[in-house]
Amino acid sequence: MNPLFKSHIYKARREQLSTAFSAGLALFLSNEESVANYSANTYHYRQDSNFLYFFGLSIPNIVGVVDFERKKSLLFGDDFTIDDIIWMGDQPKLATLAAEVAVDEVRPYAELVNYLKNKEIHFTPPYRPHNKIELSRLLLKNINELSASVSLIKKIVSLREIKSVEEIEQMEDAMNIGVKMHATVMRYCKPGVTERELFGIAEGLALGMGNGTSFPIILSQNGQTLHNHNHDLTLEKGRLLVMDAGAENVMNYCSDHTRTLPVSGSFSDRQREIYEFVFQANMAAIENCKPGIFNLENQKIAVTIITEGLQKIGLMKGNLDESVALGAHALFMPHGLGHQIGLDVHDMEDLGENYVGYDETIQRSNIFGWRSLRMAKNLKPGHIITVEPGIYFIPHLIDIWRNEKKFADFINYEKVETYKNFGGIRIEDCVLITEEGHRVLGTPLPKSVTEIETILQS
Ligand code: GLY
Ligand code: MN
Ligand code: MN
Question: Which of 388, 425, 429 to probe ligand 1 with, by most ligand atoms within 8 A of CB?
């Protein structure tokens, strides 16, 4: 079985959830095994994160219920049969597992349909086809009529977004695996090595030290493609390698770091210039992290530094504030500054980005670039967010904007044209908001030009 927190932690979480409801129940479906190419050949198993948070167990084919009226929590599921045990070895009884997470009652799966009849049922948005079908069967509703509970979503966000002391320890563990993945790739990064070899080293470490990666590794010299999962190239002198990778530790907590490395061991003048803007944006936004600050402000700080930098070297021009407000910088940084992170690398994204990163005090912008910010709201102690500015030269996007003469008052397209083969740079760290301010999680990973060049050359 997967490691668990002490049972009282799960009980307390369910009790906190219950404070928001006087009637009905919350239903949490486990994730099923997911089939790759035939039914007995499955992908690496990953439990649903809401299930992990309230019921801890990383096993399929069970359903957790928090019954707000009866003030009890239940697990519906069946013990393994001897046919299963022949293949899988001895397995603990569901009642034994239930006790480890302080669940009050265990019942056969077949009883669930009846238990749910005529009750007010709250559930989170299902994201796997199997669970949509199962919810439809259990609730006697057409799939298109399944409607997730906004009150449940909001309450879960309010609980999961504030990380407890035990969770922060797990996050540190995940961060340190991620740091090891990045630091090891830095040691092996040199011309002639293939992207695939480096990808394998990083993936192997994540599997050897935890539960694998927290998302498919991004490792590419074509870093201008934000989420590039192609690893077919051989490292070439003069190019930049973007590695955006994180680990999931044995308790399913996630890390997410990005570093950009000059393959030859030192940055060219042009690369160093752009790198410094991204580095300054990352450092300034982190420095500004503290309770009471809207993370939207941090996005503004970062993109202002980036715009100012690009103006300094003649790629951008015009009024700085206007350029930032209108989103001219989004040609170079089309994504947001970051997101919450926890049991998911984009924490709770299954519940809906707008519930996680926005609330009644702050609305999502509809301006290209600005609208991609996942976490805009006011920072509180216990939040963990990523800070991940970047500058990219995306030839296709440049061509489109140039043809449209988009933001021609703010962008010097003649000069941008000469950067079309530059690639991209992103720098990402994970930051815990504390009462006093903030703490960057994990042991420090080389980040400044000097630190990166020193480790690459050692
Ligand atoms: N791992 C993708 C991201 O940084 O959000
Ligand atoms: Mn990342
Ligand atoms: Mn990220």
Answer: 388
